[in-house]
TrEMBL record:
It comes from the Bacteria. Gene3D superfamilies: NAD(P)-binding Rossmann-like Domain. One of its GO terms (molecular function) is glucose 1-dehydrogenase [NAD(P)+] activity. This is Glucose 1-dehydrogenase.
């Protein structure tokens, strides 16, 4: 296959949050584009099944169980990658969690801590260890998953909104700091994409589906692979002059 068809050929890529939704879609998209993958999340059975399916299709894939809110787990993920492949070319820091819709003044500290620990500290933990590894490899590319909620606010989700704004801040800071080391750091800001997180959300808040679709110019949710394609492009050398950017993958949601 030509390099155009496989823009991630042989690149060693870590994907967090790979057990479902956008992360699992990214595993499929990145594998099709030639990447060698390390898939990570907390649910091992999911990772094992997905890795097995991708291997049957010819991909090189391993998996590591890790909770991104724990720095030691993020370190172990990067160490596994370096031990196994001898390098780390790209990382898609995609693991994230949502929060029950609650007015800010009624949100308790635990809810805040929990969403920040996964969404903001999780990206921080991965970023630190990935950059340390990439500095020994001569460069790399990192994509962090923020959200439309990292660009604009919505009601009754303040900790989530804060955590996704933090992801964009970390992305910009790291991009500026490591640009001279050939490490690019970007974020994607998905709008509504079909996933377990979203399905559970709509199951608890049926009225939210209509509201979400009304605020999306394309009037539909994304297939998770449509979001993963953007992350794959940012991880590839085709995006070689893009760093510190946040790419909205939202069907026009934030253009309104
Ligand atoms: N779908 C959307 O509409 C949408 C919109 C904007 C942003 N996003 C963002 O996109 C990302 C992926 O979400 P999704 O929609 O694909 O939802 P999802 O299907 O629920 O996937 C979330 C993933 O994150 C992993 N995860 C959660 N907490 C973790 C932790 N502490 N450590 C390690 N892994 C953890 C989950 O795996 P385990 O449970 O196995 O650990 C799962 O693989 C998230 O960052 C989310 O905020 C999604």
């Amino acid at each position: 296959m030509s390099d155009t068809a496989v823009p991630l050929r042989d690149k060693v890529v870590v994907i967090t949050g790979a057990s479902s939704g956008i992360g699992a879609a990214a595993a499929r998209v990145f594998a099709r584009q030639g990447a060698r993958l390390v898939l990570s999340a907390r649910r091992e059975e999911r990772l094992r099944e997905l890795a097995g399916r991708l291997r049957e299709q010819g991909a090189t894939v391993s998996h590591v169980v890790a909770d991104v809110s724990r720095s030691d787990d993020a370190l172990a993920l990067v160490e596994h990658t370096m031990d196994r492949y001898g390098r780390l070319d790209a990382a898609f820091n995609n693991a994230g969690t949502a929060i029950e819709k609650t007015p800010l003044h009624l949100t308790d500290d635990d809810a805040y801590e929990q969403v920040m620990a996964t969404n903001a500290r999780g990206v921080w933990n991965c970023l630190r260890h990935e950059i340390a590894a990439m500095l020994t490899c001569g460069g790399g590319a990192i994509v962090n998953t923020s959200s439309v909620g990292g660009l604009v606010a919505s009601s009754v989700a303040a900790p989530y909104i804060a955590s996704k704004h933090a992801v964009i801040g970390l992305t910009k800071a790291a991009a500026v700091e490591y640009a001279a080391h050939d490490i690019r750091v970007n974020a994607i800001a998905p709008g509504l994409a079909r996933s377990e997180m979203v399905d559970e959300w709509f199951a608890r808040h049926p009225e939210a589906r209509e509201t979400a679709l009304r605020s999306a110019p394309q009037r539909r949710a994304a297939d998770p692979e449509e979001v993963a394609e953007a992350a794959a492009w940012l991880c590839s050398d085709r995006a070689s002059f893009v760093t510190g950017a946040t790419l909205a993958v939202d069907g026009g949601r934030t253009a309104w």
